[in-house]
Amino acid sequence: MCSTMRALVPLLSLFLLGGQAQHGSDWTYSEGALDEAHWPQHYPACGGQRQSPINLQRTKVRYNPALKGLKLTGYETQEGEFPMVNNGHTVQISLPSTMRMTAADGTVYIAQQMHFHWGGGSSKIRGSEHTVDGIRHVIEIHVVHYNSKYKSYETAQDAPDGLAVLAAFVEVKDYPENTYYSSFISHLANIRYPGQTTTLTGLDIRDMLPKNLQHYYSYHGSLTTPPCTENVHWFVLADFVKLSRTQVWKLENSLLDHHNKTIQNDYRRTQPLNHRVVESNFPNQEYTLGSEFQFYLRKIEEILEYLRRALN
Ligand SMILES: *[C@@H]1O[C@H](CO)[C@@H](O)[C@H](O)[C@H]1NC(C)=O
Known about the structure:
23% helix, globular, zinc, lyase, signal
């Protein structure tokens, strides 16, 4: 390599990196040149065959009774200070590396951050990323982890078995305030503008998750935002977090994006399943026999028993 070229290489990579950094904040869900339909042009993985989110169609989910529950350690009350940022797309909380999740196959994942996807101003507009039987839920919570065999999130994010996301849906009915969310929600006012950070003192992620952590859907997919890397082992909890309407409204109306527009509907549309199979470690309720069906089944058994006796 001649000396001019050698000098040019770092310059060129700086230029390329600069371009990437700029796109990093430029992508959007629905507006401008880099809306989600155009993500694949700048982030090729976004056009891949194993993308997330997906629709979880329960009749197609494979019940795997051998799939063990997740083991979450360090999720309970943590002392300390935890930064929370408005990154222009969502609110993100930095998590301590003492929070760990052990998957059914024994892989240990270390928590990195937690963020949210939500809908719009009216509580009728929902914003989860995964849908269940085509139904979009109100909010989706993502706890992002990296595989503990890598020394940091930065290393793991490019590895084929690098990441795992624990996801949960929020449900809103006429529930009273969920006090486990009060501190988080009151801190949103401090990070109205993108780039602003605030600090949560003390954190209990266990209490911010659904009561039942045992039942989940699992499949292999991707990050749901650019660069859409296809290295995410997804665990979507079946049970719901319950928030009050006011709490949901605050999350939907507190933060502004880079154009000073309220961040709303920050979810990606569902992606094709292609050849993937979604597994669950609990049976589909629709498949377990309803009480009416069981009533008729008992009648049939009675008739068979009657016939058997009559024939003897
Ligand atoms: C957003 O609003 C703030 C405060 O009014 C202002 O300082 C900033 O320049 C605005 N940004 C844009 C992109 O309009």
